[in-house]
């Protein structure tokens, strides 16, 4: 029970906050009649009387704070009155009709919308969730002020989340990150989004939050001193050039720094630009002039200059971005924009929300277009999951939303290809797919689909899946279907190959296959524990038994005499079948490393599998392919796991003696990816290290993005040791984050 003294103290606080609110509204709506707001305050005070927040404050403090946030967004008095009343229907006995009588149709309608959204449980099962999100979107469509109040409500609840139980904290924070922050982002409200994200981050992943926070705290003093210095230089330069602008220095938000760390998989020490400057000018022309001044002063990082004024982001964000490097080697980001762009970037849709000047402005109309589109779709969508999916196009970038030519939505994992799409449509479409058209243009089967792509699959009867598809398909459905097809059909091929191998072997000794009776085949099959002759042929096709050893058992003893006389070195028992290959493989790999043929099998070749390109020194494994010879894979090749589906086709292989010729002559092309900072001179340094290792560079290619770069190099490598030497050398170059060997060339 609160003492009288405490009661007076809280009442004074409430009244002070209320006066604050009125002053805020006055500051941007000096001539508005505030009687509606006053009446709403009295009504809210009356009905929430006696109830408290978990913090121990009177409940009224919450609607009052929500209304203050709305006033900071500069919303109209209708919205602020509705903000004061937003919990009355949900938490007290007041009905929507009463609100209507007291405050009119509009306020009642908004309060009703907010109440409906509050009842949505976003953490429920996906189906229910879809229905809930649909309801919310419909409410939003009706009056955007409903969503703005809901965002303000959520913001205040997040600010006071520490008073709730850990379970509720986690649930509400998760929902904030999943639903509310993305909506704020989509509406261009960066300030609200930023605060929501940082508050939620703290509860959703407290360990990472503390890590990032501690790391920043450690560098804060140094960072702030640096920023102050930079700010001084910029202000001086602006003055010299007679440009009026204000300069803001800041350390970036925790959640955005953490996301960057996640995306680039770098440690916090390497975080490029946790420091940022913002220059707010008075005209667009000045923005470009300031960019020139900045680049004149500091060296820009290539690939990091972004002109969002010429090409605004899809939430209408406008600004110039660049990253430059200070004299001391510190990188920092600079954003340049006009006051108006700044306001739009911070407040988004709320910045232009003026009901007084008529309904919605043209720009806000555009902002709402995506929502409207979603709701229009729902007319055709019976399934609520599909509805949620369409909404998620903007909220969840980790999935790709594509369409059939008839407009049906197909949801795929990120980086999915037309093959994934085909299998999602129908297994048979997947199996017979030979190509695809995306947005009317023919693309490769490994093309990476993007949201909004309209995909048309080209099929050809009789065509069938290839094992290569497993290398680029992303959806589990497609991968599973491809593996299934390969399993079933490879057996048929194996039988065919086995038959051919035996026929060929037989021809050498002028034995006709026809002279071999079915009974004989059946006998040898049974001797090997196989049910029928087909199984025996398949086993030969898979390389489990050599054709010769089977033939030796099929022919009558008198013929076998001459048979063994012709080829005394060939192993006669099935336990030793791999020995024949091994010796041959060893021999050919030791010398000539161009196209290699296996002696005795004109159509069988030994080749290095293209998926992993093994090099001398690596552990390798052979695999008898469908009629293409023996593929030699690296033991670490991801395909080797797939090959385990048919372990009987595996065969032991090994490297021959070292080649005597210089590395670059006998070498194998190997592709390396170097992930590094994007700085001048990097490419040259990498190339030098590699050339110095007595090797030949076949190709070098650099891709830059933001502050990082990926350099891909194809170089001739003699063996594993040679490769290790080069990788170690490249890793030592300052600014190199990682060196990877890419299995594919
Ligand atoms: Mn509330």
Mean pLDDT: 77
Q: Count of DSSP helices?
A: 29
How much strand content do the residues show?
Answer: 15-25%
Structural class: alpha+beta
Using the alpha-carbon principal axes, give the shape.
elongated
Strand elements, count: 20
The main pleated sheet reads as: 6 strands, mixed
The low-confidence runs, each spanning 5 or more residues with pLDDT under 50, are: 354-360, 373-397, 560-604, 657-665
State the share of residues found in helices, binned by percent: 40-55%
Distance between the termini: 75 Å
Bound molecules: manganese (II) ion
How would you describe what is shown here?
A hairpin with a 2-residue loop joins strand 18 and strand 19 (708-717). The chain contains 29 helices and 20 strands. Helix 4 crosses helix 7 and helix 12 (206-240) packs across helix 13 (254-264). By secondary structure, the chain is of the alpha+beta class. The strands form five sheets. Strands 1, 2, 3, 4, 5 and 6 form a six-stranded mixed β-sheet that branches. A five-stranded mixed β-sheet has the order 12-13-15-14-16. The site of manganese (II) ion has 4 residues, from loops.
